[in-house]
Write a structure and sequence with these properties.
Elements (H helix, E strand, L loop, with lengths): L3 H38 L10 E10 L4 E10 L4 H17 L14 E8 L22 E7 L1 H6 L4 H18 L3 E8 L17 E2 L9 E2 L1
Parallel strand pairs: 2-7, 4-5
Antiparallel strand pairs: 1-2, 3-4, 5-6
Helix pairs in contact: 2-4
Length: 218
């Protein structure tokens, strides 16, 4: 015969097991409903992607000490500021690729911002107060390119290689946005004396003074 205290203990354990099972079932059912609700509220439309367009990317070549324009297809946003950033990011991705003719580390993430302002604007050149990608209503534009400190800090030092980097950035902007007549550079939102010890970053670069080259399609 089973002792009374064991019978009571068995009954308590049985009731506890039943209660825990019911609670687990309730939690499972609640989680299932939340999952279904999440699926119902998820967007059914795919995010919009910028259309593929041809862009001219002016790539530096260290061996020839030259700039070589290439026609590439890449997604370009509709705004001038977005297009300016997209083409410069692609240029720096080419420099960061293995076997690049002008090897520079960093890639697309080295372009923090690109600002477009009227050339005769009295606005301060400061990313904290500027409107990213804002195009001027008409006439020539000043492009302010904000580079990352990591890009400047790891850029190869030398007058030739620094010059080719800056000129290729300016030439790529001019090739895709003809109204950009002047380019200024910032590093982490601040003015920097040189890129990597040689090329002056305090000056304004005039895109009309840049050399032209033959375009090669890829």
């Amino acid at each position: 015969m089973i002792p009374r205290h064991q019978t009571v203990l068995f009954a308590v354990l049985l009731l506890a097991s039943i209660a825990m099972g019911a609670k687990l079932w309730q939690l499972r059912d609640r989680a299932h409903r939340r999952l279904l609700a999440g699926e119902d509220s998820a967007p059914t439309r795919a995010p919009e992607v910028a259309p593929m367009e041809q862009a001219t990317i002016v790539v530096a070549n260290d061996a020839a000490d030259s700039l070589e324009p290439r026609l590439l297809s890449l997604p370009l946003p509709p705004s001038d500021g977005g297009r300016a950033r997209a083409v410069l990011e692609r240029l720096l991705d080419l420099y960061a690729a293995p076997g690049a003719a002008h090897p520079v580390a960093g890639g697309a993430k080295s372009i923090l911002n690109v600002f477009l302002l009227p050339v005769n604007s009295n606005a301060k050149i400061a990313p904290a107060s500027a409107d990213a990608g804002r195009a001027a209503p008409g006439g020539p534009e000043l492009a302010v390119v904000n580079l990352s400190g990591a890009f400047a800090g790891t850029h190869p030092s030398g007058i030739e290689t620094e010059t080719l980097t800056i000129l290729s950035l300016c030439a790529t902007l001019r090739a895709n946005l003809p109204r950009v007549s002047e380019v200024r550079f910032l590093v982490d939102g601040r003015q920097r004396q040189t890129l990597a010890g040689h090329v002056d970053l305090t000056r304004t670069y005039l895109t009309g003074d840049l050399p032209d080259g033959d375009k090669t399609e890829q």
